[in-house]
Amino acid sequence: MNKETGDIASDGYHKYMQDVKLMSDIGLEAYRFTISWSRLIPGGRGAVNPKGLQFYNNLINELVKEGIQINVVLYHMDLPQILEDEYGGWISPKIIEDFTAYANVCFREFGDRVAHWTTILEPNAMAQGSYDNGGLPPNHCSYPFGSNCTVGNSTIEPYLFVHHSLLAHASTVRLYKQKYQAAQKGIIGLNLYSMWLYPFTDYAKDIEATERAKTFLYGWILHPLVFGDYPDTMRKIAGSRLPSFSSYESELVTRAFDFIGLNHYTSSYTSNNPTTIDGPLQDFTADLATLFRGTKDAPPSAMILPGPMVDPHGLELILEYFQGKYGNLSFYIQENGYGGSDDTLNDLERIGYLTKYIASTLKAIRNGADVRGYSVWSFMDLYEIFGGFKTHYGLVAVDFGTEERRRQPRRSAHWYSDFLKNNAAIESECDFMTKTPHAQL
């Protein structure tokens, strides 16, 4: 991105003690981070890298010392290259055994101090970006659906990736519950990327496209986890390209979670995309057959990308939708935040955004949603996959132009600290901050 790399980024590898102290000063109750499979087990299986093991133990112990709850993600686009080269990574069922073995190392080495485990982050979003158009690692795609890929098959690989992700997740959950949970007393779940979807018009085709998109984005993951199989709508559209679960696999994935994590930033307007659904070659995007708009006047895109809409009411609506469709699941809002190109310390827009979404979360809880926790994205600026160093989400600013990567809390960090310590400015605003669902910042 912008010819930049995340090799050093905010340099948390060397500055973790300073960062944990800053978390404690702000008043953070929990911190979520991702363990790098490649750092811990560079060969994908077998020998553990002692330096990787030491780093994660040091970080975890520092968090324990400061009384901060530890929430760990096991996987987000960081696959040991050797497994990609050997058998194609997530498109092969071999990944299930290797991922479960990697998770076993994490449970064994860190589980006595970890409260929450999330197996895989945003598989529903990675399917399109990583295995259809090829814009995200490991950059799989095929003509005419993607460009600049040297490997891939966009017609089937998005479905294989999610299928094997679900089975690897379920295998890992079974391992944790059978071997570790009773003693370690943690919980384990899966994460989804989520947007609330509004029909672009009242025409039947746009309403149908909106429901189809909900099925392809959310039912794809949640339907197997709750009911043991993929939604009928997906089976009808994707046909034999959508893998099937054996009876054993169906039983394995059903209810294989303690919670569902949601990454939620925005909402989108959705409309039918008639140019793709009847084509001779079908990829996931063609099956989805939906166009997304971040605002009413924005150009449509077939890509599932976050837009600028600030819609706290959408968070309430998606939680209500999940409750009606899949029962009263337990949720954690694992990511919610405001990113901008302005590197100001006086970030009033971020404070306004967070105030509205926290108020909306509280309102959803009062309306019956089983939301167990909320986390801001992000604690500090970092290397963003779509924005590099040009997009700033952090409560804490990082000066990437200096070797020391100087940290400086923004105004939002002070506001959030006051909220956490004094429950300030949310209760009184809950009733009116969500009344204008499509407010633009």
From TrEMBL:
Gene Ontology molecular function, alphabetical: beta-glucosidase activity
InterPro entries: GH, Glyco_hydro_1
Subunit note: Homo- and heterodimer.
Keywords: Disulfide bond, Glycosidase, Hydrolase
Family: Belongs to the glycosyl hydrolase 1 family.
Species of provenance: Urochloa decumbens
Keyword Ribosomal protein: no
Keyword Isomerase assigned: no
Full protein name: Uncharacterized protein
Signal sequence region: none
